[in-house]
Structure formats: structure tokens, C-alpha cells
Write a structure and sequence with these properties.
This protein is mostly helical. It folds into 3 domains: about 120 residues, HUPs (Rossmann fold, 3-Layer(aba) Sandwich); about 110 residues, Alpha Horseshoe (Serine Threonine Protein Phosphatase 5, Tetratricopeptide repeat), CATH 1.25.40; about 150 residues, DNA Cyclobutane Dipyrimidine Photolyase, subunit A, domain 3 (Orthogonal Bundle), CATH 1.10.579. The chain is about 45% helix and about 5% strand. It has 21 helices and 4 strands. It has a 4-stranded parallel β-sheet with strand order 3-2-1-4. The protein binds flavin-adenine dinucleotide. The site of flavin-adenine dinucleotide has 29 residues, from α10, α12, α15 and α17.
């Protein structure tokens, strides 16, 4: 008997519930990855994620080969191709992880398969619910987190020792980034994709960063977060395994790290209950957003004249990744100071982020824009206050905005304060907007003034 293990955002062998279930139910398994043309057609296959995905697929194939198997690659519509492989191999079952986006839900309905309950989240969407009639998800993080913490965690599944693939299943070559996404060029400093790279990064960070994570998670120049988000997005690492390993330690850093992983689940359960929140306001504020091409371009290129915002936007272009504090402040700048629709910013992030994720990206954007689950939807992050607090010596800005590197200390945050001739020596733009004007406009628009 044959079962198909359909890989999607779970490109790993350790603690892989879908592969584990497939191997338990059949003697032979087809580890299948379909390069889904629907994902590309939806504009979701961008150079940065394609590069990481190509690494992850090559690593998965190598891992399977080391266990006597291999990865079977097909290109096309994921449902059609899966059915084709099932017909060719006589597979009686398809195992795949439950998804949360509207796209994943439609795919599952079309496949009509038994889903392996463990999806991408630690606690699957819907597993914990608020009390009250008709409540299908938590809209506020703190009460969600309390319930989430009380949930038991399944134990970690070992990586399989061997995988027997039926002979003669046709496979395409493991695709390169160029094949996955022929247009565009990846950012110059992307992380290496794949399970092995992810495991190495986690092991290193466990030694060097986890213990004092709670004190350093907002430190912009310190760059002391785990940078595991891309591995979690593609499922090269299992969040269940990370929580088990982190919880084995008693330091406050481990607790804070686990709390961040709960945020990931929180957004997944919101999106699963409200798939329209990927594009529609979760809680509309009746915003009549502005759109000024020059301002949006300045924001995208990191030339707004606010050094800390520009540093963040340039890091995003260069690395396809951004520190959470920087994500928050650049998103607040776009949606609240410039008063531009969060969807414009979310799209730009999805074009570049390796960890770009429907649930986390769209719902974090909505959180910052105040259309989402933030219980203080009208708070505005002043970039100058943020800069002084989270980059007090200006090191983060000097790293990413080299044309200001001659400005010492916190002076780098306010180049507009320099005298005329001094100012002229720097090839750096004037602020695109006055912060007080932006704030007033936002308050008026939201009826707060
Ligand atoms: P760490 O601080 O080490 O945290 C560990 C893990 O917890 C992360 O890898 C991530 O999986 C999870 N996590 C941490 N913070 C959050 C959060 N606020 N929401 C959900 N999960 C979280 N994260 C994505 O994975 N994909 C996105 O597309 C994405 N877009 C975002 C857009 C905006 C506007 C904002 C404000 C945040 C966004 N985030 C997104 C959340 C967060 O910024 C990143 O997960 C984090 O910066 C990744 O770095 P790290 O792995 O070093 O995080």
C-alpha cells in the first residue's frame, strides 16, 4: 500500500506529523512537493522566497535520499498533480497539513482528503475558544495566550529512519530559485534555506541569544532575536520542537520566546476564522486612506528623511528580513504618519520578506494600522521616540544609512537639526512629512480631534 505525503509549509524531517502519519499508515510513501502554479499566479512566488524555497527543497531531497527515499517534484495545479500521482502509484491516502488561508482551505476542500490535524501552528486554530455563543476565535491576544499556555503539547516526533518510495514514480528535478521565480533578483543577503540551516541557527541561538532574549528583543542594533521566522514559515523547523527545547530551560528568555511563538498561533487562528482579513479590514475604522506616489516610493526605498525608518526599509531590501521593532515602526510610519492604506505596505513586505506569511504579515499590519486586534488602535509610534529608545546610540541607523555615518551618537536620528551648510554636506533627503502635521491629519481622519 502507498500513501502520499504532500509537503507544503512543512519542509522538514524532524517532528514532521504529516510524514509521520503517512509512514504509519502505509509501507510505501511518496514524498511529494508540487510547485503550485496557483501560488505564482497569485503573485506570491517572489525572488526572496523562491531562493529560500529552492534551498529547502534541495535539503529535504538530500535528507530523504539519506533515508533511502527521495522527493518527488511536480509542477502544476496542486490538486490535479496530487490526484495524478495518486492514480500513477495507486496511493489510497493523501496526508497533508491543515492550512489556514482561504487558498489552503479551498485546496483542501478540492482534495477532499483526511487532513492530518497538526498544521503549522502549535495549538491548531479553533482548539481553544473564548466562552460565549458563536465565538469562533480569540480577538485579543492576552486571554488567548492564557488559554494557549494551558494546552498540553504533543511530544516531539523523531525523524524517520527510512522512507520507502515506490519505484518508478516520475519526478522533475528539484527546482532552482530561477525556475521557481524567473523574474526579478533575490536580495543580496538572504539566509540559507532548509532544515539543516534552521537547526544550526536554532542551536547557535540557544547558546548565545535565548537566555536574555526578554531584555534584548527590542534592541535594534543588538539584533538579538532568533531570526528563525523564515524557517518557521517554510516549516523547516517545527514550533513544537522549539517550544519543547526552550521550555527545558528556566530562564526568562525562554518564556518570552515561547510567548512570541504564541503570537504566531494567535494570528493563525484569527485568519482561519476570518479568511477575509487577509485583505479586508478586520475591524474597519472607516479610513479614507491617502495615496501619494512619491511618499510611498520614498518609504519603499528608505528615503523618507527619517533615518530610523529608512534604516529599516533598507535592511528589508537587503536581507528580506526585518527586526520586529523595525517592522512596527516602519508600518506605523506608513499607515499613521503618512496615512497610507496598510494593504500597500503589506504587499511591499510580501514582495520582499522571506518569512512573508498571510496570517502573520496581514494581521500584524492590521494590528499596527489599528484596523486589527490591537486594543489601542489609535496609538502612533513616533519614529523619533522609537529611535531614541531602541537605537539610543544611533548604531542601527549608521549601519543601514551609511551616508549619515559621520554623525555621532543620537544626532544621527535628526539630521534636519544641523545648520544649513552642515546639512548640505549630507546627501540625505529632508523629511517627507512633518511629524506633527502627520499626527494631526491622522487624528482628524479617525475623529479623535
Ligand atoms: P523572534 O523575536 O526570535 O520570535 C520568534 C518567533 O516568534 C518568530 O520567528 C515568529 O515565528 C514568532 N513571532 C514573533 N513575533 C511575532 C508576531 N508579532 N506575530 C507573529 N509571530 C511572531 N512574522 C512572520 O513570520 N511573517 C510575516 O510576514 C510577518 N510580517 C510582519 C509585519 C509587520 C508589520 C509586523 C509588525 C510584524 C510581522 N511579523 C511577521 C512578526 C515579527 O516581526 C517576525 O515574526 C519577527 O520579527 C521575526 O524575527 P525572529 O524570527 O528573529 O523573531
Amino acid at each position: 500500500d502507498v500513501a502520499i505525503c504532500l509537503f507544503s509549509s512543512d519542509l522538514r524531517l524532524h517532528d514532521q506529523p504529516v510524514l509521520h502519519a503517512a509512514l504509519r499508515s502505509a509501507t510505501q510513501v511518496v514524498p511529494l512537493f508540487v510547485v503550485d502554479t496557483g501560488v505564482a499566479d497569485a503573485g506570491f512566488m517572489v525572488p526572496n522566497r523562491a531562493a529560500f524555497l529552492a534551498d529547502a527543497l534541495a535539503d529535504l531531497d538530500a535528507g530523504l535520499r539519506g533515508r533511502g527515499g527521495r522527493l518527488v517534484i511536480r509542477t502544476g495545479d496542486v490538486v490535479t498533480e496530487t490526484c495524478r500521482v495518486a492514480a500513477e502509484t495507486g496511493a489510497g491516502e493523501v496526508h497533508l497539513a491543515a492550512g489556514v488561508s482561504g487558498y489552503a482551505l479551498r485546496r483542501e476542500r478540492r482534495l477532499g482528503t483526511e487532513l492530518t490535524a497538526a498544521g503549522r501552528a502549535l495549538v491548531p486554530p479553533g482548539a481553544v475558544l473564548p466562552s460565549g455563543p458563536g465565538k469562533d476565535h480569540f480577538a485579543v491576544f492576552t486571554p488567548y495566550f492564557r488559554r494557549w499556555q494551558a494546552e498540553g503539547l504533543r511530544s516531539v516526533l523523531p525523524a524517520p529512519r527510512s522512507v520507502r518510495v515506490p519505484a518508478g514514480v516520475r519526478s522533475e528535478d528539484v527546482p532552482s530559485a530561477q525556475v521557481l521565480c524567473p523574474d526579478g533578483t533575490p536580495s543580496p543577503a538572504l539566509p540559507a534555506g532548509g532544515e539543516q540551516a534552521g537547526r544550526r541557527r536554532f542551536t547557535a541561538w540557544q547558546r548565545s541569544g535565548l537566555a536574555d532574549y526578554q531584555d534584548r528583543q527590542d534592541d535594534l542594533p543588538g539584533d538579538a532575536t532568533s531570526r528563525l521566522s523564515s524557517y518557521l514559515h517554510f516549516g523547516c523547523l517545527s514550533p513544537v520542537e522549539l517550544v519543547h527545547k526552550a521550555s527545558a530551560r528556566t530562564d526568562p528568555g525562554a518564556e518570552a520566546f515561547v510567548r512570541q511563538l504564541a503570537w504566531r498561533d494567535f494570528h493563525h487562528q484569527v485568519l482561519a476564522a476570518r479568511p477575509d482579513a487577509a485583505s479586508a479590514d478586520y475591524r474597519t475604522k472607516g479610513d479614507r486612506w491617502r495615496y501619494d506616489e512619491a511618499e510611498v516610493t520614498a518609504w519603499k526605498e528608505g528615503r523618507t528623511g527619517y533615518p530610523v525608518v529608512d534604516a529599516g526599509m533598507r535592511q528589508l531590501l537587503h536581507e528580506g528580513w526585518l527586526h520586529n521593532r523595525a517592522r512596527m515602526l516602519v508600518a506605523s510610519f506608513l499607515t499613521k504618519t503618512l496615512y497610507v492604506d496598510w494593504r500597500v505596505g503589506a504587499r511591499h513586505f510580501l514582495d520582499l520578506l522571506v518569512d512573508g506569511d498571510m496570517a502573520n504579515n496581514q494581521l500584524n499590519w492590521q494590528w499596527v494600522a489599528g484596523t486589527g486586534t490591537d486594543t489601542r488602535p489609535n496609538r502612533v509610534l513616533n519614529p523619533l521616540v522609537q529611535a531614541k529608545r531602541f537605537d539610543p546610540r544611533g548604531e542601527y541607523v549608521r549601519r543601514w544609512v551609511p551616508e549619515l555615518s559621520a554623525l555621532a551618537g543620537a544626532a544621527v536620528h535628526q539630521p534636519w537639526k544641523l545648520s544649513g551648510p552642515e546639512r548640505a554636506a549630507y546627501d540625505y533627503p529632508d523629511p517627507v512629512v512633518d511629524l506633527a502635521d502627520g499626527l494631526l491629519r491622522f487624528k482628524r481622519a479617525r475623529g479623535l480631534e
